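ok so I'm stuck.
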Amino acid sequence: MRLVAFSVLSALALAQPAMARADKPTKAEKANSAATATFEAYERTETQIATIARLDDAPAGPQLNAVIVVNSDASIRSAQMANTGRLKGHTLLIKDNIETAEFATTAGSLALKDNRTGRDAPLVTRLRGDGGVILGKTNLSEWANIRSSASSSGWSGVGGQTKNPYATDRSPCGSSSGSGAAIAAGMAWAAIGTETDGSITCPASMNGIVGFKPTVGLVSRTYVVPISHSQDTPGPMTTSVADAALVLSVIAGSDPLDSATIEADKHKQDYTVGLGTSSLKGVRIGVLRKQAGRHPGVKKVFDQAQADLTAAGAILVPIDYDFPEAMGTDEGTVLYFELREDMGKYLSALPGNIPVKSLADVIAFNQANAATELRWFGQDSFERAEKNVDRAAYDKARANSFRLAGPEGIDALLAKHNVVALIAPTEGPAWMIDLVTGDHFASVGAGSLAAIAGYPHLTVPMGQVEGMPIGLSFIGPQWGDKGMLDLGAAYERARTAVLGKPRFKRWGE
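replied:
not stuck anymore, here's the structure
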C-alpha cells in the first residue's frame, strides 16, 4: 500500500506547478492535478480506515460498533478512482442489508452470516461505476428493526450494540444505526441506509448528520433484504445536503428487476444543479406544530430553526394536524403482511447453502439459537407477521393507510395551506441505550406520513439539546425530491445554531 503512496508523491514532486492564467491547462498541469487528487484520495481513505480502527475496534476506544467489515484495500482503490466519475474515489459504507459482491450480507442476523452472494445490488453497481469506493458494511438494527416490538435500536447478533458518537451510552436510533454513527464519527465520506419508517431519518437526526429518504421507486431495492415493497427505499446519509444530493444523483434510476422504479428514469435528475444558490425567499412552508412534541429543549431548537427560515425570507404557515389513528394501525397490517411475503421471496432465491429460506425458518433459527439471538429481546413481530395471511385485510389496510398519509395527508396539507413542504423536528434527543426494556421513542416528528405515502423526507441538523443532536425534517410531495434538497441546502446556509461535535464519551462525562 505504501508503494502507491510513494508513486503518487513522486509524481507530485516531479510535476511543475500550474501557472495562474485564463487559457486551458497544459498536459503537465493536468497530470499534476490528477496526481494531487490521487494522493489526496489515498490519504483520505487511509485516515478513515485508521478512524474505524481507533473508534470502532480498539479496546481502549469508544468501540462504537458502527462498522461490521472493512475493505483493507480501499485506499488503493480510492487512489485508482480519484479521477473517475462524479464520486472521484470517495468512500461509502453500505448498510449490511444491501448486497455487495465482496462481503456477506447479514441484515445483522447470525442466520445470514455466510450469505455471500457474490453480487452487487444495482445501487452499489451505480456507485462503483461513478467512481465510488465501497469501504465496508455498517451495523444495523437486526432485520432492519422489524423482529421485535421491544428491540434496542442498533443491536444485531452479528455486530452487537452500535453506540451514539455524541454520547456512547445513548441510542444511535435505527435501523441504519451504523451508517449514522459511522458518518458522524468521520469513518467514511458517505453511507447508504435503508428506510421503511424512520430508519434513515431517525439515526441521521440523532447522530447529527443529513439523511434523505427518497420517493419510494426512485432508487432500486433489488438485492436489498426487504421488509415492505410498499415502503422500503435506500437513501444517502452524509454530512451535508450537497453530498446527499450527489449520492442520490448517482443511485437514482430505473431497474428492470424492481417494478416500483419503472418511472424513476423519468424523474431522476442531477440533484446538485442549483443547490448552491437555492433560496428560501418567498417560499411558503407548513409548520407542523403538534409534531414538535412537548420537550422544551426541542421546541427551543425548532423555534430557532423557524426564525432562521423566516430571516432567510421563507413564509411559515402554522398547521394543526393530528395523525389519524387508523393510519398507524393499518401500516402495521401492511408491514407484517409484506414482511412475510417479501422476505420469503428474497430468502428462497438466495444462492448458496443458507439455513433460512422463509420467515418461518428465521423464527425457528432464532429459537434454536436463543442464547445469542434472543438474549435481549424476542421476535414477537416476526411471529405476528407469520400469522398475518389475510390478503383482503391487507389490501384494505394498504389502500387506507396510503390514502390517509398521501392524498388526504401530505397532498391535502400542501394544497390546503398553499405550501411546498412540511417541517417538524425529526425526532427528540437520543434516549439511553436500554437492552432490558428496549427503545424509548418520543412523540416527535411526522416521518410516518412520508414513510407510508412513499414521499421524500430530508432531515438536516438544526441544533442540540444537552449535547444531543436534533434534526429538522422537510417533507414534500411524491417525486418532489429535488425541492426538498433545495430547501435543505438553503436552510443549511441560513442556520445560525452552532452544531456540536461527537465527544465519544458517555453522556455527562
